[in-house]
Structure formats: structure tokens, C-alpha cells
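Dear support,

I submitted the protein below through the web form. The confirmation email said the job was done, but the results page showed an empty box. After a refresh the structure appeared. I'm attaching both so you can tell me whether what I see now is the final result or a partial one.
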Amino acid sequence: MPFASWSVLTVDFLVVLHLALGGVALAAIFLPGMLALVAALPFWRALRRETHAQAAMAGINAAVVGLLAAALYNPAFVSAVSGARDFAVAAAAFALLVAWRAPPLLVAALAAAAGVALGA
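What the results page shows now:
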């Protein structure tokens, strides 16, 4: 009987340890960015007026858009679009989102229904 109580105690301790280490990891991931943000806030208004800073932010914005496009293409598009029918569904969903400004939930439901109907 003492073994059962020790095993419960050990599991409880491991759960608490896991939560504590998860909190430490979460803080380690997000704390540097938050500290940089808090440090830059007082200078942000003055920095926005500088033409060099505006050019740098435009370049950073373009780089981030390029990285997001590459991340969308390689794992998502390459594995999801395997033929002409898949491409037609993806293009139609994109047109619905961009040209007709359809609600994203509706577009996702229609794309899922098209995938089921096409037997993907």
C-alpha cells in the first residue's frame, strides 16, 4: 500500500514540475521580445518620423512577407496541392477571400466540402 501513495505523490510532483518548467520556458521565449518592445516604446514616436527608419521598416515588412510566403508555399502548398483539381479549389478559395471578401469560415467550409466532393 505505501507504494501506491508514493506513486501518486511522484505523479503530482512531476505535474507541478512540468508546469513550472513550462512557465520558465514560456518566459524565456517571450521575455526578450517584450523587453525590447518596452525599451523601444519611448523612442518609437521620434523614430517614426525618421526617413531612414521608415525605409528600414518597409524593408523589414517586405522581408517578413517574403518569409511568410515561403513558409506557406513549402510545407502547406506543396503537401496540400497535388493536382489540378486541388489547385482549382485553392485558387477558388483565394478568389473568394480576396476578390469577393467572403467570410473566412465560409470559405473554409466550402473548401472542405469541395475536398470531400472531389475525393481528396
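Response: this is the final, complete result; the empty box was a page-load delay. The mean pLDDT is 87.
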